[in-house]
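Re: duplicated header lines in exported structure tokens

Our pipeline writes sequence and tokens for each protein into one text file. With two proteins the header for the second block appears twice in some exports. Here is an export where it did not happen, for reference. First protein block:
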Amino acid sequence: MPNNDLQGRTIAFLCAPEGTEQVELTEPWQAVERAGGTPRLVSTQSGRLQAFDHLDKADTFPVDTTVDVSDHTEFDGLLLPGGVANPDFLRTQPNAVAFARSFFDAGKPVAVICHGPWTLIEADAVRGRTLTSWPSLQTDLRNAGATWVDEEVHICDQGPNILVSSRKPDDLKAFSQAAVDAFKP
């Protein structure tokens, strides 16, 4: 049943032009829409984003805006889907890293799943925070000053903002709900 918990709220979904795990984009996107919010796809290039189902090409999605012309002031929260290639590309793009970091600096909620924390590591946004991720990132997160936990969803409020994290597609129901809750006014 639709609700209006996020009425008037716009959530940025930051994705690379290629490599986003499709279900980690579409399920939270639909959850934001069901809650009355407006999701917007932000990338490093205009055009269409090529999503993936693990290592296989899946659907394409239209990019709403790019990191070089947008900033956190246009959004009420940030969601970072995973997929291995997606955050690995984003962390090499200074504008994408700065875009992600700006949500922390502004105290706005951020939700991240799977390999998505790689972008936040590059943004130096995980130091002193507790989060979960795909298990292969735990050493990277610890080396970046974070505490890693193996949980379906973890909500960290020990920092400048709320940080919601999850491990994998199996966690999407809990992750999407926790993200929507964090994005509420």
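Second protein block, exported in the same file:
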Amino acid sequence: MTGTDQHVQPKKKGLTRRQKRGVSRGVQYAVFVAAVIAFAVLADWDRLRNQFAQQDIAEQMFPDVITLALKNTVLYTVTGFAVGLALGMVIALMRLSSVGPYRWLAGVYIEIFRGLPALLIFIFIGVAVPLAFPGTEIPGGTYGKVALALGLVAAAYMAETIRAGIQAVPKGQMEAARSLGFSPARAMVSIIIPQAFRIILPPLTNELVLLFKDSSLVLFLGVTLEERELSKYGRDLASQTANSTPILVAGLCYLLVTIPLGFVVRRLEAKAQEAVK
């Protein structure tokens, strides 16, 4: 063995990339567990229970919290989604049109209504429209106003989603339809749009979840007792009882809808990924 060989030191092996990820994940779990333990130890559970979990107040909310507040919230959401979907489809087709002014108008609409907070849209519908058109009533009263406000907001996002879905359909589908004698309009309605909706169903369902939460802005339109949705109903009872239990119950009612919808979104996304594979 030469002198050179005697001075050669074996290389020290460091952690592999997989081991580093495991260490990082372990540290994150440890921090999370420590935060949960600290919260559980330091929180004043008696005060929290007295302020947010009064059983007698929660029992007084039923069945109205379901038959009135939750029902109105679902109704506002469904009608707003329907308006947004119909308007979004029109705007998406305008965005894809070969006519320049159509594309320009659609682009302006999308940029404006995606950039404005939903709160300002509700205020505009409730205040600006009656001032601009005295004596004009939106059909459906408060329900019509909410459907229009939510629809205007949702349409800007849905239009881009629908446009992306239409463009994701292979161009050969349109060419094949045209070779079979379909007009461009009929091919779009019968062939392209149905395929596009299968692609965009998960994001559309996610938009429904967002609209369900945005329906809480209805309070800025001025609603009657029979027109209150979950947030307004919970806030009114919290003020009357000087307790936050109604707000917690209203939040749980939101979760009764949003959690199943979130599960549906994940299932649809998984199926879409399987179809691509």
